[in-house]
């Protein structure tokens, strides 16, 4: 059995909130979009990663995902994000911090999702 990739589905009341977080802040690009459709949807991609964003208010109220993105240049990412979008820095992990498990981490959040940026 072989797997190639894990692709999360993320639901927003307003898909534009997700686009601001993932595209504007984290630099993902839109690979496919149906934003003006009855059920707005898009595929975001960056460096071989994919995220599916959906506009679905009921599911958005039920799901608040948290996940990690692993990198080899956490300081560079932190510098860029903290200057361009400081409002997304998570108050509980707003600086690059060496965690007890020895990984460096900082966290971002909007009203729907939490993303931990991690470097081992």
Question: Could you walk me through the main structural features you see in this protein, from its secondary elements to its overall organization?
Answer:
- 23% of the residues lie in helices and 34% in strands.
- It has helices at 15-25, 57-62, 74-84, and strands at residues 9-12, 29-33, 41-46, 49-55, 66-70, 97-98, 104-109, 114-119.
- β6 (97-98) and β7 form a beta hairpin.
- The protein is globular and about 45 Å long.
**Oligomerization state:** single chain
Strand elements, count = 8
Helix- and strand-based class?
A: alpha/beta
Calculate the mean pLDDT score and round it: 96
Any idea what the shape is?
globular
CATH topology: 2,3-Dihydroxybiphenyl 1,2-Dioxygenase, domain 1
Give, in order, the helices and strands: EHEEEHEHEEE
Query: Which architecture would the CATH scheme give at its second level?
Result: Roll
Q: What strand line-up does the widest sheet have? A: 1-4-3-2
* CATH homology-level superfamily: 2,3-Dihydroxybiphenyl 1,2-Dioxygenase, domain 1
N- and C-termini, Cα separation: 27 Å
* Helix coverage percent: 10-25%
- Helices, by number, come to 3
Task: Return the CATH class.
Answer: Alpha Beta
- Quickly count the domains: 1
Low-pLDDT windows of residues: none
Strand composition percent: 25-35%
